[in-house]
Amino acid sequence: MSQINPFKSSLVRITIAYVLLFGLSVSIILGLIYWSTIVYTTNQTDENISAEIQALSSVYAQKGYSGLAATLSERVRQQRPGDSTLYLLTDHNFEPLFGNISGWPKVAYDKDGWLDFRLDDLLDENGGEFSARARTFEVENRFNLLVGEGMKDLRNLRELVTQALIWSLLVTVVLGLLMGYMMRSTLRSRLTAINSISREIMKGDFRQRITTKGSGDEFDELGDNLNIMLERIENGVEGVRRVSDNIAHDLKTPLARMKNKVEELHRKFDIDSPEHKALDNIVAEADGLLATFNALLRIARIEYSEKRKEFGSVEVDALLEDLLELYEPLTEEKNQRLNVLTIEPVTVLADRDMLFQALANLIDNAIKYTPADGQIEISLIDADAGAYLEIADNGPGIPAEEYDNVVQRFYRIDESRTTPGSGLGLALVSAVLRVHQMQLTFEDNNPGLRVRVGLPKLVQKKGSAAKT
C-alpha cells in the first residue's frame, strides 16, 4: 500500500477529531461536576455560618452580653477535635474579648460581606496555614462578633475533585485514543481491501471482486455497488474484446487465402511486368493486414491470460544484448549511432518471449523514427531507487499531451501517419508491461523521445561490471 502523509490521511484526521471532541465533552461534564460540587459545599458552609450568626443574635437579644458570652464559652468548650467553627467577640475597637482565635482578621470584606482569610497561629493537621471563611455582625455598636468555618474540608474536597478530574481526563484521552485507533484500524482494513482489489482491476483484471462481510454496513453497500459496476464493465469490455477478436480471427483466414491466391497469380507474371509490380503491392498490403490482425489477437491474449503464473527468472541484461545484436545491422544500414551507455545485471520475474517482443518494439520504434545519421542511446541501470531501462533518441519525439494516447490501439499522431505501421506497437508494449507490473513512461529528450521502463527486480545486483 502506498505511504500517505499521516497528517493528510482522512483516517488520522477523523481519529484526532474524535479524540478532541470526546475529550472536550468529558472535560465539560467533569468541569460541571467540579463547579457544582464546590459551589454546593461553599453554599452549605455559608448557610451554616449564617444560621449560627442568627442563633447567637437571638441569644444576645434574649440574654444580653452575659448570655452571649456564656453561649460562646459553652460552644467552644463542646467542640471536638476536628471541629473547625470559629468564634471571636471583640469590643468596638476590635480588641478580643472572647473566642477561639487570637485576633480580628486583617482582610477586606468581599462585596457580599464575607471574609476569606488565613490564620498563621492556627495550623491544620497537615502543618499548613489554617484557611477560613467568616461573617460578622455588630452588636449594639458596642461589640463585634465573628463566626466562621475552617475551609480545610472544602480545600481537601477541591483537591480530591481536582485529582479525580485530572485522572478522569487522562483516562478519557487514553480511551479516546484507543477507541480512535480501533476505529481507524477497522476503517483502514476495509479500505485496504478495497484499494488492493482496485489496484488489481487497474492492472486489467476485471474479474476481481470486492469481498463483503455480509454485515450490511456502508462498506458492504459500497462493495456491492462497485461489484455490480465492475460486472457491467467486465461484460462490456469482454463483449467488445470478443467482437474485436472474432472480427480479427474471422478476417485473418480469408485474408491469408487471398494472399496465397495473389501469390500464385504473382508467380505467373514476368518479374518486370506491371502486373507483377501491382501484385507485389497487394501482397505487401495483405502482409500488413495480417500483421495487424496478429497484433490484435496477441494483445487480447496478453490482456486476458493467466500468463503471470508461468513467469520465470529473466536476465534483462542478457535479453537486451540479444536485442542489440539483432538491431545493430539495421542501425548501421541507416547510418545511425547506437550508444549503449550502461548495462548492469538485472533479473526480473517475466515471460521472456513477451518481454523480448515489448522491448523489441521500443527499439524498433526508436530506429524507425530517428533520422539517418541520428543517435540512439540505450541504458539499463540498477540504481538504489530501482532498476530501469531507458531508450532515448533524437527523432521528432512525441508531444507531452499525446503520451497517454499513443499506447491506445490504432492511435497515431498526425506526424507519423505517413510512416508504415498500424498504431498497435506501443499498445502491445503497454499490454505486456502492464501484465508484468512494469511502468512505462515517456519524457522529452530535447530533441527526441526518452522511453523509460521501470523494472521490478527479482534479485539484487549480480555484480558491478558495466558495459559501455
Secondary structure topology:
Layout: H1 10-78, E1 85-91, E2 96-99, E3 114-123, E4 129-139, E5 143-150, H2 152-202, H3 218-268, H4 274-303, E6 312-315, H5 316-333, E7 337-343, E8 347-350, H6 352-369, E9 375-383, E10 386-393, H7 425-435, E11 439-444, E12 449-455
Parallel strand pairs: 7-9
Antiparallel strand pairs: 1-2, 1-5, 3-4, 4-5, 6-8, 9-10, 10-12, 11-12
Helix pairs in contact: 1-2, 3-4, 4-7, 5-6, 6-7
Please indicate the count of domains: 3
| Percentage of residues in DSSP E strands | 15-25%
Number of helical elements: 7
With strands numbered from the N-terminus, the spatial order across the biggest sheet is 2-1-5-4-3
Q: How many E strands?
A: 12
CATH topology-level fold name of the largest domain: Beta-Lactamase
- Architecture of the largest domain in CATH? 2-Layer Sandwich
How widely separated are the two ends?
37 Å
Helix coverage percent:
40-55%
Order of helices and strands: HEEEEEHHHEHEEHEEHEE
Low-pLDDT runs of 5+ residues are 459-468
Largest sheet: 5 strands, antiparallel
What is the structure about, briefly put?
This protein has 468 residues and is an alpha+beta fold.
Description of the molecule:
53% of the residues lie in helices and 18% in strands. It has seven helices and twelve strands. The chain has helices at 10-78, 152-202, 218-268, 274-303, 316-333, 352-369, 425-435; strands at residues 85-91, 96-99, 114-123, 129-139, 143-150, 312-315, 337-343, 347-350, 375-383, 386-393, 439-444, 449-455. The strands form three sheets. Strands 2-1-5-4-3 form a five-stranded antiparallel β-sheet. Strand 11 (439-444) and strand 12 form a beta hairpin.
